[in-house]
Amino acid sequence: MVVSFLTQNSMAPVEIKEADSHYQITMEIPGSARDDIKIWSESGLLIITGEKKVPTSSRLWSERIAGRFSRSFQIPDEAAIDKIEAGYKDRVLTIEIPKIEQFKQKTIEIK
Length: 111
Hints:
Blueprint: E1 14-18, E2 22-28, E3 38-42, E4 45-52, E5 67-74, E6 85-89, E7 92-98
Antiparallel strand pairs: 1-2, 2-7, 3-4, 4-5, 6-7
């Protein structure tokens, strides 16, 4: 998988893995609600946007980062775009990008 980080933002660190049948993008997004995150594909890109919110209260000091974020990734040719799935649990967004059957790795037995 060729991954192009078209935009990078330290507010949304990402891990990308490849398996025989799919790619997986994992993104930590503490402070974001499920409804604050949007994912779509457009012109060969997977685009993830959202907002991290920090409660506005009287603070003496805060190192928490808040605001909007955006990450874009080039979708590989072997991706089955219509079968991409996403889940959000414990402040971690996970996106599964299945590979088209013809591109899945196949082991060939030697006879």
